[in-house]
Amino acid sequence: MTVTAYAPASTGNVSLGYDILGLALAPVSGELLGDRVSVIEETSVFELTNTGRFAHKLPEDPKENIVYDCFVGFKAELAELGIDVRPVKMQLEKNLPIGSGLGSSASSIVAALAALNEFYGKPLNDDKLLRLMGKLEGQISGSIHYDNVAPCYLGGLQLMVESEQCISSSLPVFDEWYWTICYSGASVSTAAARKILPQEFSIKTTIEFGRQLALFVDALHKGDRVLAASVMTDVIAEPYRKSLLTNFDNARAYAESEGSLAFGISGSGPTVFAVSDSAETAEKIKLWLEQNYIQNENGFAHVCKIDTHGTKVSEDV
Ligand SMILES: Nc1ncnc2c1ncn2[C@@H]1O[C@H](COP(=O)(O)OP(=O)(O)OP(=O)(O)O)[C@@H](O)[C@H]1O
Ligand SMILES: N[C@@H](CCO)C(=O)O
């Protein structure tokens, strides 16, 4: 029986929470914005076929696809439980662009592991799966960060806890907020965008980062949208990364002139996001970004809400 998992796009950092905050995205149009991975059947040799809009951007060798590493990692975890996993035939529908800032590798990893786990009767619990997802994401970006895999798998707005007991905790969200996202069509390597950041920050920046994050979480729990929006600025990555993004300052200036509540880089970019409290403003910003931020035929924009469901697994998706 074929098992298919859909894992949504995600925004890491959310400006103010570098590596600590992430949220899952669902276009209000109802379109899917995420990868789908199917486990079709057991076979004698591992097989992977790629379909979808961005399949042609994937490595040609299936063994260089992160989905293969997911299979290898999953097999090793099950071996520790005394369960033997035979090679499988898998399919990846690659709907998210690579190096987009939308958690593209995370989406493939999460969908692959969720589908494998379901196919084998759920031998791994959420915690084990999340730790494995983080490890595989770290393999690609150079260091483990859960701010894409956790919201992608669990849905909602997630705060990275990373304790022995728990990887991630779900935060309250504002249903009134719209998240306009726009991918320019360029590719930014997450590993490279991490390398350009300083290894140390001043005490002033450190205090500002902590203050903002604390106030944001407090504001979410109090339901104070004005306070939450007022601290959504990025003192860690944006000052260094924005030079990688063509037309970033103009895009921010336009979004702010239209009354957006916050504007920033999604993950390591080049996707940007704007938060608005009306569908009309969100659509207006989307239109401007489509006309002025997109650079080539690979780009796109969506008005989204937070995807509170996360990964969906089904035997007949
Ligand atoms: N299924 C896959 N999906 C995405 N990238 C993959 C996949 N398999 C292998 N890769 C490789 O992993 C690397 C992903 O790079 P990177 O981490 O910069 O992109 P990303 O995860 O798509 O970024 P982002 O999180 O910003 O969307 C690329 O070198 C790509 O070729
Ligand atoms: N927190 C990660 C997200 C990458 O999508 C980073 O900004 O490098």
UniProtKB/TrEMBL annotation:
Domain of life: Bacteria
One GO MF term: ATP binding
Annotated GHMP kinase C-terminal domain residues: 217-291
Compartmental location: Cytoplasm
Catalysed reactions, semicolon-separated: L-homoserine + ATP = O-phospho-L-homoserine + ADP + H(+)
Residue span(s) of domain GHMP kinase N-terminal: 67-156
GO biological process: threonine biosynthetic process
Residues spanning the membrane: none
EC number(s) recorded for this UniProt protein: 2.7.1.39
Sequence positions that bind ATP: 97-107
Pathway: Amino-acid biosynthesis; L-threonine biosynthesis; L-threonine from L-aspartate: step 4/5
Entry GO CC: cytoplasm
Keywords: Amino-acid biosynthesis, ATP-binding, Cytoplasm, Kinase, Nucleotide-binding, Threonine biosynthesis, Transferase
Function: Catalyzes the ATP-dependent phosphorylation of L-homoserine to L-homoserine phosphate.
NCBIfam families documented for this protein: PRK01212.1-4 (NF002288), thrB (TIGR00191)
Protein name: Homoserine kinase
Origin organism lineage: Bacteria, Pseudomonadati, Pseudomonadota, Gammaproteobacteria, Alteromonadales
